[in-house]
Write a structure and sequence with these properties.
Layout (H helix, E strand, L loop, with lengths): L44 H33 L2
């Protein structure tokens, strides 16, 4: 088995079909590729749920602040 030099490790993006372009230096050669790590550019369901909860809580706080400010403004107009 061939030892891999750390400097030879590459990080590449896949296309919409999961393919990676290795470059012309690998043309007409047998290449063995190992997937070491996979990162998604899309948030997972837990991240989306947490973001939704946070946005919902912020919206509630803003609505309460707006109610207070609105009440204050109307009471000033009634004077």
């Amino acid at each position: 088995m061939t030892k891999v030099d750390v400097r030879d490790l590459q990080t590449n993006e896949t296309d919409d079909r999961g393919r990676i372009y290795l470059g012309t230096k690998y043309a007409n050669k047998r290449v063995t590729v190992a997937v070491v790590e996979v990162e998604s550019d899309h948030p997972d369901e837990d991240e989306l749920a947490a973001a939704y909860r946070e946005a919902s809580e912020s919206a509630e706080e803003l609505a309460e602040e707006w109610d207070d400010a609105s009440d204050d403004a109307w009471s000033e107009l009634d004077k």
